[in-house]
Design brief:
About 45% of the residues lie in helices and about 20% in strands. It has about 170 residues and is α/β, with parallel strands linked by helices.
């Protein structure tokens, strides 16, 4: 397959529907991916290992703000998408506006849906749609020690400490 790209949902459906018809297993995962850290990278590589192509859905800026609060995202969606698309394990990135990727998953119908193990199995958005279409849902183990919120907290505390020191 050619290099990773940022696609609209319709473009992803066209491109990866054809891939599925040609027998390739399509994997989907999603998140905010606000500040990329090793936990994200390991999770994405594990997800990619479950199939032939990995599509990553990322929350739009408005939905990240609703989910994470003011001051987030740190990086705008187009920059987060560009960074993810540059990763070797990512075949395509789709930006979505809703709080959940349910519509993306229901329309794309990946063969494998991957979500972090911090989500209870019955709470994984898109589970019903993927399983009804014959796909499977994988709960990936969380990579401990990495959190965008923790990184941002450390940055803020460091910034505060440096102001106090001066």
């Amino acid at each position: 397959m050619d290099s990773s790209v940022v696609l609209s949902l319709d473009e992803a459906i066209l491109r990866f529907g054809r891939e599925k018809r040609n027998g390739r297993r399509i994997v989907f995962t999603n998140g905010c991916f606000d500040i990329l850290h090793p936990g994200h990278i390991r999770s994405l590589e594990q997800a990619r290992d479950l199939g032939d192509a990995l599509i990553v859905g990322i929350n739009s800026d408005a939905s990240v703000r609703q989910l994470k609060g003011e001051g987030r995202p740190v990086l705008p969606a187009n920059e987060r998408a560009e960074i993810l698309a540059a990763m070797e394990c990512v075949d395509a990135v789709v930006i979505f506006d809703d709080l959940t990727p349910r519509e993306v998953i229901a329309r794309l119908l990946p063969d494998v849906l991957v979500k972090g193990g911090d989500w209870a199995g019955d709470k994984i958005v898109g589970r019903e749609e993927v399983e009804a279409a014959g796909g499977r849902v994988v709960s990936a183990p969380v990579v401990l020690g990495y959190s965008t919120s923790d990184i941002l907290r450390k940055i803020r505390e460091g910034a505060l400490a440096s102001r106090v020191d001066s």
